[in-house]
Amino acid sequence: MEWIERTEPATTARCRYCAYEASFPHWKSFIFEGRTFSVFRCPSCASLIYVPQEILSRVPETQTPEEIANRRIGDKYYLEAGYSTDHIALAVLAALAGVPPAERERHLFVDIGSGLGLSSYMARHQFGLTTITVEPSPTAALGQELLGLDVHRAYIEDLPEPVLQRLAAQPSVMHLNSVIEHLLEPAEVIRSLMARSHIEAIATVVPDGGAMDADAALGAMLPYLAPGDHLHLPTEIGMRLFFRDLGFPIFALRRMGLLLIAVGARQRADLASEAEIETTRTRFLHGLMAHRNPWLAGGAAGRLLPHAVLNRDEASLVELRRYFAGTLPREAMTAALQQGVGWDSIPFHLGPTAFWLAIDAYARGQHQEGHAWCDLVELFTDRLARDYPIYASQTLHLRGEARVHRANDLAAIGEWEVARHWLRLVIDSAGDRVLGASADQVARAEALLGRLTAPAGSLRRVRRVLLEWWRRARTGH
Ligand SMILES: [Zn+2]
């Protein structure tokens, strides 16, 4: 898994967003799972396009036991740490924004490529809409089982007749999360659907082709590039032209990290404010925390925690501390990681959750508790980066944060030598583009290290302290 440092000749291609057809310059190539992928940039709208256009990862009808096990782990990761409630809330609110509030209930919420169906679940339970949920992959069955949705197993190019009949009979808003970039001819597919229905607005969630950074670690970009699965990645201009050509006079866009939430509508569409997203997200997650499925409930608690910590929301923190004391006892989880138990017993949100519980402990002046949670972050990150590097980028980022926070806390109580150890780990990791700290973390570590002067004779003591720490971390005593 690495970028290739070489430029290929320009190639003839057609942009799926602005329809420009010409010679496209090479942007970047990389190797993933033994294959080379090459990406070219549209000279008109700067969207990225894979050449050749290949889908390698369609889910086959029958699967081997190993594939089923991998899918189960993938579902577990998605529920525990993979999805962003803010994206879900913003995209659902964006689809709803396409029609005036008084008319919403007349409209169908059509969720195609729904994945598990969390957006449909939100639209139905939180906003009272009638939903149509369509998902081709076996995740559809999980959504049906966990969320009680009626999910049609189909691709957007080939919707079943009952869905098309309902679309023809009632106006709709369409929600396409991670769909457009998978289609060989997205404009053609949507145009033929529009010819048979009354679509008032389409809200899309797509990777931002303009934000792909070839100077960043490939691992951090890979979930967005999704080689063999995505065919092209639009830019803001690309999406604007795409919706204009489909006949939508209104365009609205919001960036969320490396994703674009882009809306084409017939009437004025105002995207949700931060406050609306926050209220929607918090209500949704509190509801999910009570779900009988532990992946879904634990994942919801893990997503609520950072907001509770950052907002110093003591009422939520009391509830969440109690929840995690029951479901993620720190010493038992530490022992489980040291013993190498399977991922069935380790929640994927454990690393981020341990990080936020450390920040919470430090904020309460509980230094030892904070360090113990940071130790758990270290153990968890090593394990995740080894077993599932593709899921590890958020946790790797938080490990860098944990080290800087721990050093700050240690420095504040005069434990300068140990503080310096954690800062050096951050600084020394800078050369590692996969496992290393970010440039910002390194800069903060260097600034703090510069302020800590070495008291005489400290070196021997720091070694002793660290050896002891490592011994305990490894043996669990
Ligand atoms: Zn283009």
Distinct ligands, ions and cofactors found in the model: zinc ion
Strand order of the largest sheet: 9-8-7-10-11-14-13
Strand content: 5-15%
Main β-sheet description: 7 strands, mixed
Helix content: 40-55%
User: What gross morphology would you assign?
Assistant: globular
Q: So, the CATH homologous superfamily of the largest domain?
A: Vaccinia Virus protein VP39
What is the CATH C-level name of the largest domain? Alpha Beta
Q: What is the CA-CA span between the terminal residues?
A: 37 Å
CATH-derived architecture of the largest domain: 3-Layer(aba) Sandwich
Low-confidence stretches: none
CATH topology of the largest domain: Rossmann fold
Cα Rg: 24 Å
Tally of individual helices? 18
Keywords:
477 residues, 18 helices, seven-stranded mixed sheet, alpha/beta, Rossmann fold, single chain, 14 strands, binds zinc ion, five-stranded antiparallel sheet
Molecular structure report:
The chain is an alpha/beta fold. It folds into three domains: 49 residues, no CATH class; 208 residues, Vaccinia Virus protein VP39 (Rossmann fold, 3-Layer(aba) Sandwich), CATH 3.40.50.150; 148 residues. Helix content is 50%, strand content 15%. The chain has 18 helices and 14 strands. The strands form three sheets. The chain has a seven-stranded mixed beta sheet with strand order 9-8-7-10-11-14-13, with helices on both faces. It has a five-stranded antiparallel beta sheet with strand order 1-4-5-6-12. The protein has a two-stranded antiparallel ribbon with strand order 2-3. Strand 2 and strand 3 form a beta hairpin. Helix 10 runs antiparallel to helix 11 and helix 10 packs parallel to helix 13. The longest helix is centred in the C-terminal third of the chain and has 21 residues. It is globular. The model has no long low-confidence stretch (mean pLDDT 91). Zinc ion binds next to loops.
